[in-house]
Amino acid sequence: MRADAVFEGGGARGIAFVGAIQAMEEEKVEWQRIAGTSAGAVIAALLAAGYKSFEIRKLLSELDFSKLRGRTIMNRIPIIGSLLELMFNLGIYKNDYLEAWVDSLLLKKGINTFADLPAEKLKIIASDVSNGQMFILPDDLERYGMTPADLKISTAVMMSASIPFFFRPVIWKSKDRNKSYILDGGLLSNFPIWIFDTPNPQFPTFGFRFVKDKVSIDPVIPTPLHLFKNIFRTMLQAHDLRHMNEDTLERTIKIPTGDINATDFKLNKDEIDFLYHSGYSSTKKFLSGWDFEQHKANRIAKIKEDKGAR
């Protein structure tokens, strides 16, 4: 079966996507186009490059997640160091380790920039906070006087995964020498399930998103640092609780992630295994009741209904 895939942002919880992908591979799903935000952008980039679920699982098992928090000398100073990083660099940690890691994996497949992939194969969502606009890569590069050959996919992934306050924004200069501050795509679209939509699709677009019972935040806010943490946790996790319409729900695999948050980069083996198996079992359950023709009929009927109501 041919299909498109859209992966939600979710930081460390992205491990669950690997189990979901394995379940899809067992059903002989062939990915046509792939999109993602933040952690979803990492998985989308690796899939678009040709990596399979067993390869991605091995790569993640070897990844030192603690290095994703790109620590500096100031980070070693409790509280004050983080506040200084926020003041001078607009983010507590560097995010360049992720860029280098993704870049090395893509190069093994002979891929560097978006020009090395078929057109429309991969879309990554970021947020240009300098211009107040969603940044869909590579589609929106023309707006900056650039082409798909001008941007490395690993840089786009880093942009998409730059959680506000937690990571430094990517300060990006386009060819016209204008400077933009780029942050996590989740600011504007954490789950871009709409990105490949057409009125009469020839094959499905499956969405993969995380679900939590509630937004997990610190009830006590003793310092500005704690306030900043609660802001971005609320921002990211609130996406998991928002209402989705019937059409979106029909094609979305919902993956429980327990109490694990986006910024829990110190996961132990049990937590990693839980995420992986949650993604796998959730996808298997979803596919057991999936019917594309029924979904398409429902979608066409809903479009007609909406037109009739206008």
UniProtKB/TrEMBL annotation:
<feature type="domain" description="PNPLA">
    <location>
        <begin position="5"/>
        <end position="197"/>
    </location>
</feature>
<dbReference type="GO" id="GO:0016042">
    <property type="term" value="P:lipid catabolic process"/>
</dbReference>
<dbReference type="Pfam" id="PF01734">
    <property type="entry name" value="Patatin"/>
</dbReference>
<dbReference type="InterPro" id="IPR052580">
    <property type="entry name" value="Lipid_Hydrolase"/>
</dbReference>
<keyword id="KW-0443">Lipid metabolism</keyword>
<keyword id="KW-0378">Hydrolase</keyword>
<feature type="short sequence motif" description="DGA/G">
    <location>
        <begin position="184"/>
        <end position="186"/>
    </location>
</feature>
<feature type="short sequence motif" description="GXGXXG">
    <location>
        <begin position="9"/>
        <end position="14"/>
    </location>
</feature>
<feature type="active site" description="Proton acceptor">
    <location>
        <position position="184"/>
    </location>
</feature>
<feature type="short sequence motif" description="GXSXG">
    <location>
        <begin position="36"/>
        <end position="40"/>
    </location>
</feature>
<feature type="active site" description="Nucleophile">
    <location>
        <position position="38"/>
    </location>
</feature>
<dbReference type="InterPro" id="IPR002641">
    <property type="entry name" value="PNPLA_dom"/>
</dbReference>
<protein>
    <submittedName>
        <fullName>NTE family protein</fullName>
    </submittedName>
</protein>
<dbReference type="InterPro" id="IPR016035">
    <property type="entry name" value="Acyl_Trfase/lysoPLipase"/>
</dbReference>
<dbReference type="GO" id="GO:0016787">
    <property type="term" value="F:hydrolase activity"/>
</dbReference>
<keyword id="KW-0442">Lipid degradation</keyword>
